Fold these 2 entries.
Entry 1:
Amino acid sequence: MNRFRQWRGRRPFAGGLLLVLGGAEILVTMKAPLPVILHVGMQGLAGYLLPALMTICGLLILFSPGQRIFYSLTGILLSLGSWLTSNLGGFLVGLLLGAVGSCLTFGWLPDQPARASRRLRRAEARAAAQGAGEPVRTSGEPV
């Protein structure tokens, strides 16, 4: 489990996963029964090609994070294109999953140190204040 956590921490895992789920959801809605399908826009090859490419971009984000900017921009364009070609982007669910995943991937920074939780930072500040001989204040006390 520790190896998976380390692997996940070195790549935009949440963004790639959401993009894969968005593409998969759109592909599933393309196979929905006829009364459920909304025939809007181009059907046929483009209806299957865009969500398949979304899924591939999401997998490439997971396994090749060095090219994440290109894949995230391609993923957002494919997600928005699915509005016209694939049942309104998988009834908006796949479109939103793909768009959010692409945005998360675009904003991910690989070389940032892990942030300490607020509770840990406060405990370290209290320990430093006690070590320096300063009185420890709580947030509700006046200055």
Entry 2:
Amino acid sequence: MTGPFEDVVRVHGGTVLRVCRAVLAGHDAQDAWSETFLAALRAWPGLPADVNVEAWLVTVARRKAIDELRRRTRHAVPVEEPGALDGVPLLGGVAGPGERDLDLWQAVRALPDKQRRVVVLHHLGGLPYAEVARLVGGTDAAARRAGADGVAALRRTYGAQEEER
């Protein structure tokens, strides 16, 4: 690829961070963001000129975030009080104010794998469904259906949480 790498970070940094935050929280998401751009910088000179940079970065970000989740499961997680986990992973500081954001990120993480991946790639990553279908596997229509089902599930889950308040 040609052109300054700083332009890539400036243009796509927000999208990459949203993808990382959909999988991780707080500092872990920021770490995955940094790891994504470190890996991208190393690969940058060898990328073909016709590559969809945004789709490529979203894929790298998702993999870096998953790597971080795997790394975390292999290490003890300190908690302030016993039982703080209660079967739910610690979320740390999620971007945006209020507990409502924490509920949304939990709801996104609770989606079935394909629905979560489509919602993250399309709605947070901004990729078109054709590109999402290529990344996730399947057809454009299947990606649209998984995305619609994921959003519907989020509305049901999120709406039920709002009624409890």
